[in-house]
Design a protein that fits this description.
With 181 residues, the protein is mainly α. It has 7 helices and no strands.
């Protein structure tokens, strides 16, 4: 006799949904905002001009564009959950590269890689959460994600403010890889 699969939806607690929504948003915001505290240090260290600083800042966004463009195909091939895991690994690798970057070029490539992971996750996480959330909280999940992106940017600014006086730019960048583990 053939077994019949259950078609009932998987039960996920609201706390789990809120936690992952918050974590994804905070990390995305942190990655976007952290460069503001790093630029003064790398500018002096590597003698960067305004164009170089702009390119370093934009490299994450350019990577995010490519990551977001690829997210549809990656989601179809791997599924949303695995795509989120892959994007986290990509961001960790990029963050480690950025934290230990010996040169402008290496930091530029590392931030582009971080952007790829952010682009993958920024389109996947809200979709995944809305698919899993009960209908009555789906709108709140989207708003929650946006609130935590801005919170992540604030956390990056605060981290830069408190670690800036000790010239700890590598530690400021490295913070995000610890939070992803």
């Amino acid at each position: 006799m053939a077994q019949v699969e259950s078609t009932s939806p998987r039960q996920i607690s609201r706390f789990t949904l809120y936690f992952f929504g918050a974590l994804g948003g905070i990390l995305f915001g942190y990655d976007l905002g952290v460069i503001s505290g790093v630029l003064p240090f790398i500018g002096k260290l590597w003698g960067l001009d305004a164009l170089d600083k702009g390119v370093i800042t934009a490299s994450l966004s350019v990577g995010a564009i490519f990551g977001a463009l690829a997210s549809g195909r990656v989601n179809e091939r791997l599924g949303r959950r695995k795509t989120i895991m892959v994007s986290a690994v990509i961001v960790i690798i990029g963050t480690l590269g950025a934290s230990f970057a010996p040169s402008f070029s290496f930091l530029l490539i590392s931030r582009f890689v971080i952007g790829l992971g952010i682009g993958l996750s920024s389109s996947t996480v809200p979709t995944y959460l809305s698919e899993l959330a009960p209908a009555k909280v789906r709108g709140a999940m989207g708003a929650l994600n946006q609130i935590f992106i801005v919170s992540g940017i604030l956390i990056a600014f605060l981290t830069s403010y408190f670690l800036g006086p000790v010239s700890a730019w590598r530690w400021i960048v490295f913070q995000v890889s610890f939070s992803r583990l």
